[in-house]
Amino acid sequence: MQYRKQIILTGATLVIAVGIGFVMQRSQSAQTLYGEKAAPRGEVLTDADAALLDIEDIVLTSAEFGTQIQKPESEAIVFQASAPMITAPEAGDISQVQGAPQEDVLIDDLQAEADCPITAQARPVAAAMVNLTLKAPCLPNERLTVHHSGLLFNQTTDAQGTLEVTLPALAEQAMFILAFSNGEGTVAQATVEEISDFDRVAVLWKGDTGFELHALEYGAFYGDEGHVWSGAMRDMSFAVTGQGGYISRLGDVTVPDGMMGEIYTFPIDNARRSGNVDLSIEAEVDDENCGLEIEAKTLQMHAGGEIVSKDLTLSVPDCGAAGNFLVLNNLFEDLKVAVN
Hints:
mainly beta; 7-stranded antiparallel β-sheet; 3 helices; 8% helix; globular
């Protein structure tokens, strides 16, 4: 059995065990999932009794000198050597100075950083979303990782070293960390006052695992208008006007083995009618994930409150089951909408 693992280190990593039921729909039903109105049904394949619990503390240490420099004995013979001759450079050309001090190199590095600063801004917009912009002129077409309150996904700067992305906030005092693989990066912050008006759930994964987030609003069936997923994502206007929820997709699909995610947002404060929203995660069995053990992370937030995080591990059937779907129904608390 091959394995596909994702390791996220942010000081300490907390992995919560999740028991999940897996339901597979045969190929004929799977085809109707995105055409005719039919919900996947089938037999129970397997159960993941628990995900791994991995907690690793990162401890920063500083090295100490193990030995001290010894003074020579008084009887020791000290040899004197003549200093190297320094050739006078041409005016303005410091590169010809032999034995130039190391401080000059450091000054050049600092000057280069000053000429190519990395800056980012976060601006709150409608539906408790945040418009995040980055400028890194010396890092064009570079992969970076965006961190925010448990969210983790990869993006790529453009040819000018800039990036603009709009994503859902998961905290009123929202902080965004943008980190490049070379260790450089920056931080941006925004105050999102509307965060308590919305419920949010998210699924995060790495690579081509086939995960999808599905929401069935007010008793909708697959293919109905109230079936919200990546094939019918809607936009934030549905939430702003109280009509229903929408899905945001995070991450750059062109990044090899990159971290991706989907977030469903529902306007819990100004919904137009009462009812339930049923939430599930699905994974299609295909040539990229068949026979593998894949992982995902879920997040759930109610009205801007505490974020509940769970990690799951899923054993995908072999490639003979390609075209079928695994349906995970019990990872989230379904939303109960009450209109006052």
